Amino acid sequence: MKNGYSFLMLTLLVVLYSCSGARKSQKVNVLEQRPDPVESTAAATTSKKENNPGNTAINRSLDQPLDINRYDFVDYAKTFLGTPYKYGSADPDKGLDCSGLLYHIFQHYHVKSPRSSYDYENVGREVSVKKALPGDIILFTGENSRKIGHMGIVTENKDVLKFIHAPGSGTVVTIGRLSGYFEKHFVKIIRVLK
After folding, report:
1. What InterPro entries does UniProt report for this protein, alphabetically (predicted)?
2. Which of the two residues, 22 and 169, has the higher pLDDT score?
């Protein structure tokens, strides 16, 4: 009975503190511009890989730079393009929120990671936008907050920085650009991969 209660409490905390950490954010769609249809649907039909296959333990953390190929990391993230947004979820079969997307990806690589976007504030090493690489994590403030409330993974940084994320209610995992709304809410980019 005690384990069931602990699981229930943990589940409740995950729902309360995921993404922007406020129930209000569930109804906010952070997309100001429409996603590029080619980018948002290109991998929507790609099958989603199993999360943490077998009974392999989560044995790495974000305390040290991770020895994960950044291009493989981004390619795996792209397998979730088209997944519906679902507040508080890290299960792609049900939907994903922004921090749930990263949580699920890190679990695939057996990495213990925060479940809330807010908890990424002091993770990794900050890098400039100019030096951002695919696989770096990009952080934004929430809609009506100065705290971190949204996040994504940098996919490319050529003419404009692009990132994969789960924007908000009524959307799907897509690739956005660091412009407009996102430029105004940009906080920083962090590097957690070697």
Report:
1. NLP_P60_dom, Papain-like_cys_pep_sf, Peptidase_C40
2. 169
